[in-house]
UniProtKB/TrEMBL annotation:
<dbReference type="InterPro" id="IPR000835">
    <property type="entry name" value="HTH_MarR-typ"/>
</dbReference>
<feature type="domain" description="N-acetyltransferase">
    <location>
        <begin position="165"/>
        <end position="321"/>
    </location>
</feature>
<feature type="domain" description="HTH marR-type">
    <location>
        <begin position="5"/>
        <end position="140"/>
    </location>
</feature>
<dbReference type="InterPro" id="IPR036390">
    <property type="entry name" value="WH_DNA-bd_sf"/>
</dbReference>
<dbReference type="Pfam" id="PF00583">
    <property type="entry name" value="Acetyltransf_1"/>
</dbReference>
<dbReference type="InterPro" id="IPR016181">
    <property type="entry name" value="Acyl_CoA_acyltransferase"/>
</dbReference>
<keyword id="KW-0808">Transferase</keyword>
<protein>
    <submittedName>
        <fullName>Helix-turn-helix domain-containing GNAT family N-acetyltransferase</fullName>
    </submittedName>
</protein>
<dbReference type="Pfam" id="PF01047">
    <property type="entry name" value="MarR"/>
</dbReference>
<dbReference type="InterPro" id="IPR036388">
    <property type="entry name" value="WH-like_DNA-bd_sf"/>
</dbReference>
<dbReference type="InterPro" id="IPR050769">
    <property type="entry name" value="NAT_camello-type"/>
</dbReference>
<dbReference type="InterPro" id="IPR000182">
    <property type="entry name" value="GNAT_dom"/>
</dbReference>
């Protein structure tokens, strides 16, 4: 068993207390809002995931169910969140943000980002990457002590046995993985062959060079180093404050697990947080499951036409979602 210096332990405890104070957790409200720290964290968790259940929040926030229930009631009364009964379990509800809640999420996110960005230039003796790695390791270690689960096990059990982790940003191999996934999944509709896969690869290769822009982002389901589900928001290739939803794809093995909705929610939350007036997407007729999901989330079909850019004559469709006011 490793023996740690009492002075080292005292220094870590002191730094932890100072972090709590500097982030404002000793105050009754947090992040420039009128909300309690637990309420702010609730909005952040729901906003990042798209939707969660009360059980999910209790586990993520390490709070008693009764405490979470009272907090959710208060947030619902404030108009920050809304509940939707689950289709598969009438006793449970999915919690999502209202337009007011999304505005709060945007403001809190901006507040936190500003705090981090203003502090990073003042780091002494460490890089930003060092800080991220060590803070994550310490947080995971604390959680492991509390739950008895390793970080790897925690990831597998979040949301149940059928849950998969969604990661953000560039992933190694994503151009090839996503292009191949499109070809295998949509080949029967668009046509098998090199044309479709080559066009997807070329467009993605251009986009990933711009992924560092805050307007752009991508979310992927990664299993054993391979992307098996993904969605992307390109905030730069369309003018007029319009976002482009691109490369929304799921492997067949992920169907029916709610991951498509979770991916789309992340993309929509990103667009709402950055204030895009509209989101445009182009798809092809015949992808009925995706169309149903689009329409459930406010997209409307605005154009339909025949095209052959993918190597086969098909009916293409354009959908638009206007920003919720």
């Amino acid at each position: 068993m490793t023996v740690y210096s009492p002075d080292l332990i005292a220094s870590i405890r002191k730094a932890s207390r100072e972090l709590v104070r500097e982030h404002g957790f000793l105050k009754p409200t947090l992040a420039g809002t009128e909300l309690s720290p637990s309420a702010v964290h609730t909005i952040l968790e729901i906003g990042q995931e798209g939707y969660l259940t009360a059980k999910d929040l209790s586990r993520r926030l390490n709070l008693e169910k009764s405490t979470v229930s009272r907090m959710l009631l208060a947030l619902e009364q404030r108009g920050e969140i809304t509940k939707t009964r689950q289709e598969t379990d009438a006793r449970s509800h999915n919690l999502s943000l209202t337009p007011k809640g999304r505005d709060t999420f945007k403001a809190v996110t901006a507040y936190g980002e500003t705090m981090v960005k203003s502090a990073l230039p003042h780091l002494a003796g460490a890089t930003a990457a060092d800080l991220e790695r060590l803070l994550s390791a310490y947080a995971n270690a604390l959680k492991e002590v509390r739950t008895g689960q390793t970080a790897k096990t925690q990831e597998k059990t979040i949301g149940g046995a059928d849950s998969f982790k969604i990661v953000e940003g560039y992933q190694t191999g994503m151009i090839g993985d996503i292009a191949a996934l499109h070809a295998r999944t949509h080949g029967s509709v668009i046509g098998n062959g090199p044309t479709f896969e080559s066009l997807v690869s070329k467009a993605m290769a251009e986009f990933v060079q711009r992924l560092a822009s805050p307007l752009n982002n991508s979310w992927s389901v990664v299993v054993e180093g391979q992307i098996i589900g993904s969605v992307t928001i390109d905030g730069e290739d369309l003018s007029g404050n319009i976002a482009h939803l691109r490369w929304f794809i799921l492997s067949e093995r992920l169907r029916g697990k709610g991951l498509g909705r979770r991916l789309l929610d992340k993309a929509l939350s990103h667009c709402d947080a950055h204030g895009f007036n509209e989101i445009h997407l182009w798809t092809v007729k015949g992808l009925d499951a995706a169309r149903k999901l689009y329409e459930q989330n406010g997209f409307a079909l605005v154009d339909e036409y025949d095209g052959d850019q993918w190597g086969k004559s098909i009916t293409e469709q354009k959908f638009i979602r206007h920003r919720l006011s």
